[in-house]
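Quick start: what a row looks like.
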Amino acid sequence: QVQLVEPGGGLVQPGGSLRLSCAFSGSIFSTYTMGWFRQPPGKQRELVATITSGGRPKYADSVTGRFTISRDNAENTVYLQMNSLKFEDTAVYYCNADHILTYWGQGTQVTVSS
């Protein structure tokens, strides 16, 4: 059974930075496409970024150039480095693992506020 644990999140000022991490367990991490999604208040969940098992990243237009997704296959962890944060980045961020089946983390709150 795959488990995804997302410590981190928090409150940050506009223009600031934050790094999210997601620890994976229960299967072979290197075979999974990993991703980050988010759900802003009152809106649907949306894709932020994904990274394939081979390390190829993909980003939503709204975060391109500001966010970086990366993975450490030795540590079974995926990261999301978020820079130049904006008010509209406020959301619950969810880690996602996809390989035949799809798994979700519990979510972590990121609030961008002055």
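That is the whole record. The chain has no helices and eleven strands. The mean pLDDT is 97.
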